[in-house]
Amino acid sequence: MIARRSLLTGGAGLLLAGCDRVVQNPTARRILFAGEDMQRGLQRALSDRAALAPEFRPDQMSPIFRANGTHNPGTPEYAALAQNNFADWRLAVGGLVDTPRRFTLAQLRTMPARTQITRHDCVEGWSAIGQWTGPLLGTVLKAAGVRRSARYVVFHCADLFGGIPYYESIDMVDAFHSQTILAWGMNGHMLDVAHGAPLRLRVERQLGYKHAKYLMRIDAVASLDGIGLGKGGYWEDHVDYDWYAGI
Amino acid sequence: MDSDTGPHVIPQVVRRHRLATRLWHWVNAVAVLILLGSGLGISNAHPRLYWGRYGANFDHAWAQLPRFPAWITIPANYNLAISRRWHLFFAIVLGFGLLAFMIASLLNRHFARDLRVRRTELRPRHLLADLRRHLALRFHDPDSPRDYNLFQKLSYVAILFLALPLAIFTGIALSPAMNAAWPWLLEVFGGRQSARSIHFIAAVAIGLFTVVHLALVILAGVGNEMRSMITGRWRVPAE
């Protein structure tokens, strides 16, 4: 009886400890990580891929929208750009496009803009509601003549994490979604440095780490292989976050 | 050995749990344990709970949770990405497991036969008698040993139809992609941070249920109860 009893109560502890070993086994790891594919498949089966993220009223906005990740890229290059209010900054758009482009901030600001009040969901669990303004990413991609062979859009950023430039990627459905914008404005003013000046991605319906800040270059690509470590983003490559950040 | 007969007592063995119940019980036990462990790991990433549509460090938190120690979290060392991998994989096991069990239990009449609460059982006299029997650690009616007592029924109904579905649906409401697909679900819970708070409360309820459940299994006799949940055969305790 005692043996059975300790087996029952000890079993729980054993299971929890066993979980850590399981993740080190490549096959078990593959099965566990397939959870991401199952979640993505299920969610996409249940949802319209054009469905809009909830938008909010101005009185529902967070009084303080906390900044996280990089608060200032801090590199000499970025400092020089910030020095004269990003007048020398250019957004390069290239890869699988007919005409690679370099946009000034002024050019992006004259494009038709969308303003939206959306909720930012950090992978850690907190949320903040803020207002974002900027052109649709789709408008910018069309201006460069993005090709049909492109399957992903990769965002290269000015900030470094452990010496590695931050990058992220999304698929073409999210890239041309009607709420996916390149925001130069936030809460009624120009985007500040802590929140990603001069330009950041807003890809609503995905977690915060997808919303790349300090954008420098956007590439349309056919595959994520060979970009970083090939998993589509800084956190995906280095910390096992899922590329599908829909949950 | 179910029929080790002594000179005086002939133990009565009944078939207690159906195959679907037994299968689901163990799949669910593993899923719940992993979900609780990985959930505590996820909680450590931001151990503050809020009500409403938003909530971050500067906003009012109704609860500041403790940091859960390594021995109880999955993985043991803080790793939000891996905690999430465990959590999101076993969320699917839990959700579809519960759905399959519910369909099976409707078809094999487990719900109708074993979990239906009869009006007479809710009368104060019956409630009191049931409570008295519990305090005396007599959990089974010798006249109909297979029947669940009222407290068993109520707790199983609460966990099956309230706590587990609530945990599942508040979990879905935490997904920004599902917020776009099913915005009504988020409204039901009053916003993402409310859903997150309710998710945690449901998890606490499931954790408490598990602790009480295990304590009662030990009190009722681990061997007999374990066997009945593995083979289905349960020996009626001598009164």
UniProtKB/TrEMBL annotation, chain A:
PROSITE patterns: PROKAR_LIPOPROTEIN. Gene3D superfamilies: Oxidoreductase, molybdopterin-binding domain. Pfam families: Oxidored_molyb. Transmembrane segments: none annotated. Residues 85-220 form the Oxidoreductase molybdopterin-binding domain. This is DMSO/TMAO reductase YedYZ, molybdopterin-dependent catalytic subunit. It comes from Sphingomonas carotinifaciens.
From TrEMBL, chain B:
Signal peptide: none annotated. GO terms for molecular function: electron transfer activity; heme binding; iron ion binding. One of its GO terms (cellular component) is plasma membrane. InterPro entries: Cyt_b561_bac/Ni-Hgenase, Di-haem_cyt_TM, Hydrogenase_cytochrome, Ni-dep_Hydgase_cyt-B. It is a multi-pass membrane protein. The chain crosses the membrane at residues 23-42, 86-108, 154-178, 198-223. Residues 16-232 form the Cytochrome b561 bacterial/Ni-hydrogenase domain. Keywords: Cell membrane, Electron transport, Heme, Iron, Membrane, Metal-binding, Transmembrane, Transmembrane helix, Transport. It is found in: Cell membrane. GO terms for biological process: respiratory electron transport chain. Belongs to the HupC/HyaC/HydC family. This is DUF4405 domain-containing protein. It comes from Sphingomonas carotinifaciens. The lineage of its organism: Bacteria, Pseudomonadati, Pseudomonadota, Alphaproteobacteria, Sphingomonadales.
